[in-house]
Amino acid sequence: MRVMGFSVMWTKLEQPEFTTFRFPRRDRDWQIGERVQVVFRPRSKERKLLFLADILNVEDRCFDPEFAPPITEGEAIADGFWYGVLEMQEWMTKSHGKFSPSKVFHKITLRKYHG
Q1: Domain 2-112 belongs to what topology?
Q2: Which of 13, 21, 56, 87 could join 81 via S-S bond, C-beta 3.0 to 4.6 A?
């Protein structure tokens, strides 16, 4: 089972269903129906399994509407960026280095697994 890691303990992780945004993976991209381990600090000795979750949906998004449907203010706020899209862009630049606003990424909807 693959790991979907978070380096910030976002309040959205307390919800039964939530979204996150990820750049496409080179090896094997995230798939609808896939069950993942949601972990806090995946690359740390303090790595902590939070819960299992199922991927319900994967949608393309972008900051530039010419390349994919644009991220909305509501989506950015729901994802934990209280000041909206601009704050999200700044965080992504800080976390992932310089990237083009035309770069397409995924909006992934997850639901906690209760098995």
Answers
A1: 2.30.130
A2: 87
